[in-house]
Known about the structure:
The complex is a heterodimer.
Chain A: H1 6-53, E1 56-59, E2 61-65, H2 69-76, E3 83-88, E4 94-97, E5 112-118, E6 121-132, E7 135-144, H3 146-181, H4 183-194, H5 213-259, H6 265-294, E8 304-307, H7 308-325, E9 329-334, E10 338-341, H8 343-360, E11 366-374, E12 377-384, H9 415-425, E13 429-434, E14 445-450
Parallel strand pairs in A: 9-11
Antiparallel strand pairs in A: 1-2, 3-4, 3-7, 5-6, 6-7, 8-10, 11-12, 12-14, 13-14
Helix pairs in contact in A: 1-3, 5-6, 6-9, 7-8, 8-9
Chain B: E1 2-6, H1 10-22, E2 26-30, H2 33-42, E3 47-51, H3 59-68, E4 75-79, H4 84-92, E5 97-100, H5 105-121, E6 126-129, E7 132-135, E8 140-143, E9 146-148, H6 152-162, E10 169-170, H7 171-178, H8 187-201, E11 208-211, E12 215-218
Parallel strand pairs in B: 1-2, 1-3, 3-4, 4-5
Antiparallel strand pairs in B: 6-7, 7-8, 8-9, 10-12, 11-12
Helix pairs in contact in B: 2-3, 6-7, 6-8
Amino acid sequence: MAAGSLRAHLLRMLLPPIAALLGLxxxxxxxxxxxxxxxxxxQSLVDIGIALGSHIRGADIGFRxxxxxxxxxxxxxDRYDQIYYRVGGPGGEPIAGDLDLPLPAERAAGLQYYDTRxxxxxxxxxxMPAQCGAATCTVVVAETTIKRTRMAREILLSxxxxxxxxxxxxxxxxxxxxxxxxxxxARLSEEIKERSPADLHALDAGKAPEETRPxxxxxxxxxxxxxxANRNQQRFLADAAHQLRTPLAGLQAHTELALAQPMPDAxxxxxxxxxxxxxxxxxxxxxxLALARAEPGGHTEPxxxxxxxxxxxxxxxxxxxRALQRDLDLGFDLQSANVRADEFLLREALANLLHNAIExxxxxxxxxxRTGMRDGKAVLEIEDEGPGxxxxxxxxxxxxxxRVPGTPGTGSGLGLAIVxxxxxxxxATLTIAEGTSPAGANKGCRVALTFPHG
Amino acid sequence: xxxxxxxxxxxxxSGLRRMLEAEGYxxxxxxxxxxxxxxxxxxxFDLVILDIGLPQMDGFEVLRRLRAAEKPxxxxxxxxxxxxxxxxxxxxxxxxxxxxxxFAMPELTARVRALLRRxxxxxxPRIVHGPLAIDTVARRAFLRGEPLELAAREWAVLxxxxxxVEKIVSKEAIIxxxxxxxDDLSPNAIEVYISRxxxxxxxxxIKIRTVRGFGYMLxxxxxx
Lengths: 454, 224
């Protein structure tokens, strides 16, 4: 039982009073049932006494007990207990039997029951008057308490056993009852567990039992606040995108215009640098925005079925032109494959992978985009003939702002981090391997996104 | 050619204006959607460059009104936002092309040229591509002024490529366009027609590029 468990708490609260009540019940039931039995045993002692009394002979003096051995045997016979007796005269003088059998501590007239010890054993005794002629003799009969103890034990057991069963049943009922009672909570936690981080819809309070409603209402409040925060973030990102990109577009337009003008070489070098920095800044801004959108909770678009092939075909023009500017052969191997995805983010992943391939491939190299099914899973793969990524660096290149030492160019080190973020948002695995046709120092690079089934 | 730029960011608008004027276009600029709609209703523009993120009346609304007024000129939409939806919505509303900010000027001017060429060619049977001139009605082609002999299927393939200069045309699209001539065509057959076209056009500096695993692209003609 875990500390703090509701079951343990309930049992701790329920069991002591139940045990006390059952104990009390056992005690209360014990006395009414043991009394008639005790009386019956006492009565049989009295019967023996009466029988003994009828064997007292003699008058006034010289009383004696004429007890034939056969009768004595019958009287003393008992299955469990030893029976003792003692017969005394009117003056208390011993007549027959076990003469050292103790008498009641306080003598009284008539029938008198008492407990005492005899021969180091507990005995139940009865002292009773017996008619002997005109006088009254005293007969004492005692027996050991074996069958009485036994009976008491049996009575106790027959009372306690059902009560123990009741206690056990209580534990079982609490155990399973709590589980059953908490089933709606278990269902609720399953529902929350299975949700995608992007799903911030309110939980349905209608199906839940009344006791859990405050919890659901509180959760829904929290979900609502999260959704609002998300919407705010999305709005902020959209605004930031707009506010950043428009002036950057203006800046880029003017540096390009300036470069189209005749100007001294020294000046041109500087304008060229401003121009390159502008392009880098624009790309960095785009990447930071993409990263923010790709983060868990950053995208609120529900996933939809995206066909990889037309998605790649739709952006092929743009990328083929970029590849041609660097004298690269961008080709395609496109088979049908459907994935559940946020299409914008998927295009962002493709854009970052293609950007890297174009950036790091030597002139004249081939770059191939593949889509299709592999082992029943949809795959999007980009292969290039660039220097590749050494196996030891393949984990680290996924870190934000990390670039393999000695890498030429001016990349931000964000591209693969964005792809990783997008992959994990789609439950896809990102794998980096060598190219299929390494050429000399250029081992090539194959980056694949493998999507989960369905 | 007269262009209308609808962009509220003054530096970007002036950059665009200067770049396009340098290309030989007459350019008007406004930063407000309402003015753009008004200008387009009063004067004739051959192309509109339209920013989506305008104050008050946004670019989508301007586009909707232009199309509602049955203005036929091509519209090139610019957006600083990055949702795929914007693109889809823009194209649904009748935008002809779409560019995300920031963009490289040569790319923008290339798109403007392509859009203008397409809209000017509309209804005009003559298509000129550098030294190549074809008359789609008379079905005659001239290269550097000399008549050019083309087989029927070569003609069909060339027409498809000429309609989408600088765009990749998939092999499937070429097959569909050529399949009107009857029997089934294999992708290999297309390769044969392309290589015949190349041997006829490349000496004049007209290039058909192969996009591996996808299709072909007629490159923009550049003076040697």
